[in-house]
Write a structure and sequence with these properties.
By secondary structure, the protein is mainly alpha-helical. Helices cover about 70% and strands about 10% of the residues. Helix 1 packs antiparallel against helix 2, helix 1 packs parallel to helix 3 and helix 2 packs antiparallel against helix 3.
Length: about 290
């Protein structure tokens, strides 16, 4: 999800630059230095590259509608193979009007570019928050899995214990039935087996006590099972809360995408308005040129 979000943000940023007519200037190492698009801020000796070739890019440059608004800052080679003409400080003569229009466009672009950078910083902060939320959810999920495994083991142990107790109960019931049959025989032979009768009475009392102990253990097991059920309900509540937080995070991401789409539409509208104003200014300039004497 994070990789997809980062890719969508990068695509949106590039689409915004393309929508307002901005073209980045990013020369690769080894390319020929172009004094119209590049600015050499440092020279470094390099015998493997020709003279005045790009060694590394320091800062990207940008062009707005085919006009240079910021040259790319690069480090060029020195002392390699001869590479042609010297770096020029200025390559073409511009009229006062074109310089003024370029400055106005540059200011408008800088203001738009600063807004885009602020928006990009805000999106990176939101991406970091989403990343932290996802990490927290993953940690909670791992902890929940461990607790579920522990509860499953405890449940298996308790179930085996309950099964053993049920088997013991069945054995005791069978023994109790046998004792009852023996008591019937003893009652039939009461006159002749008084001693055996006393013995069986004592055994019956012992069995009653044993049954009471079994009932007590059964109540304890039932209480333990109820406690496990309550723990299971609390875990399910935590899981639902995690799912809700995940849903809220996804909704916030969709809202961010909608805001980016709205910003793009606003920028497109402003770009169309700027183009219309430029057309009007071009018409006014053509009218002024026609009115000026030759």
């Amino acid at each position: 999800m994070l990789e997809g979000t980062r890719s969508n943000l990068g695509m949106t940023y590039n689409q915004l630059l393309n929508a307002i007519g901005v073209t980045p200037i990013a020369p690769l190492p080894g390319e020929r230095f172009n004094d119209e698009l590049h600015t050499a801020i440092e020279t470094t000796p390099n015998s493997f590259l020709p003279d005045k070739a790009v060694v590394s890019l320091v800062r990207k440059g940008y062009m707005l509608n085919g006009e240079l608004i910021r040259p790319a800052e690069v480090v060029i080679s020195k002392g390699g193979e001869p590479g042609g003409e010297e770096i020029k400080t200025e390559t073409r003569h511009e009229t006062i009007l074109s310089k003024f229009m370029r400055r106005v466009e540059s200011r408008v672009f800088k203001r738009r570019f600063e807004e885009l950078e602020e928006r990009e910083q805000e999106l990176s902060k939101n991406e970091q928050m989403l990343q932290n939320t996802v990490k927290e959810l993953e940690a909670r999920e791992e902890e929940f899995k461990k607790r579920m495994e522990e509860w499953a083991k405890r449940k298996e142990a308790e179930e085996s214990w309950i099964h053993e107790l049920e088997q013991r109960k069945e054995v005791l019931i069978a023994e109790l039935e046998a004792s009852k049959r023996q008591l019937g025989i003893i009652h039939e032979h009461l006159n002749t087996l008084d001693a055996k009768k006393d013995k069986m009475v004592i055994e019956s009392i012992a069995l009653d006590r044993y049954n009471k102990e079994l009932l007590t253990e059964k109540e304890k097991l039932l209480n333990a099972i109820e406690e496990m059920e309550r723990t299971k309900e609390s875990v399910n509540a935590e899981l639902r809360e995690i799912e809700e937080r995940k849903t809220r995070s996804i909704e916030e991401l969709f809202k961010l995408k909608e805001e980016v789409q709205k910003t793009r539409e606003l920028l497109n509208a402003e770009l169309r308005a700027n183009e219309e104003r430029e057309e009007e200014k071009g018409k006014e300039l053509s009218v002024m040129e026609c009115e000026l004497p030759c």
